[in-house]
Amino acid sequence: MEIPYTVKPRPDTGLYNAKLGIWLFLASEVMLFGALFSSYVLLRVGAEPGTWSMGLMDLYVGAGNTMVLIASSMFVVLAWAELKQGNLAGYKKWKWATIACAVLFLFVKWGYEWPSKFKHYDVWLNNPTVLHEKFEEGYHEVASHGEHADDEHEHGDAAHGGDVEEHVEKIYTTRFFKEESKDSQLAFDDAWRNGTLALSGHINAYEEAQIDVLITGWKADAGVSEADAEKALAKQGAEDAAGLRLNGGLLSEKKTDYDTAKRAEYALGQAGFTVALSVT
């Protein structure tokens, strides 16, 4: 049985099967991304002030990468047009331009945008004393040597607390609001006063956070033998695997980075252990 209009267009519509199939595919893409964008808009509009990360994306980098995508679409159409005209050299020229756009796009993604997303995590504090102590420890030097350094000269250490708070507020405002407003000031003041400000890889990651991996228990009924469980602990660097399985405790006195800690949590969970991670 021969399928009609696989190459020649229908006389009534002017379309052949492949073109109609592409149109249907594009329609499905519009519905898929329409749903995703609508969900994003609803989540963003409905978010409470000070909880939506506004400053994690670079507007200019995103706009530049969008232009690269548009240019690549134009180049591939030009390549197709040259091929239709039998101009193989012109086709190769525009096809290589398309490939160059693809390489540039992936370079920006892998080299700039994606690495920080793979390590993105938040630590939400709920104790004002701990929050103020950590921020004072982390930002004391950079804040006191910034634009308020003169105040430090005049007022001594009394100026430091204010310097740190103002410095952190600028970072917080950039991330969650992009620009200062009454809403940003109220949200920051409330979070600072109650100790519920977010510490994240984008706020305090001048240095990668260090993680303690704590074994809190082992499930004997998890379907894993004692020997295999202890072997899993040893593989993660435990010195006393038997003692850890029986009594729990820190996997290692040496702290580890976030990625390694999460991998250990997953591997030990498969071996029947319950694991708690804490940021230091």
Question: Could you characterize the architecture of this molecule?
Answer:
The protein is mainly alpha-helical and 280 residues long. The protein has 4 domains: 1-46; 54-120; 123-200, no CATH class; 211-279. Helix content is 62%, strand content 8%. It has 10 helices and 5 strands, in the order αααβααααββααβαβ. The chain has helices at 17-46, 59-84, 88-118, 128-144, 149-155, 158-176, 182-194, 226-235, 241-247, 258-270; strands at residues 122-124, 198-200, 211-218, 249-250, 273-279. Helix 2 (59-84) runs antiparallel to helix 3 and helix 8 crosses helix 9 (241-247). The longest helix is centred in the middle third of the chain and has 31 residues, at 88-118. It is extended. One of its GO terms (cellular component) is membrane. Residues 142-162 are annotated as: Disordered. It comes from marine metagenome. Keywords: Membrane, Transmembrane, Transmembrane helix.
Defining traits:
two-stranded antiparallel sheet; 280 residues; mainly alpha; 4 domains
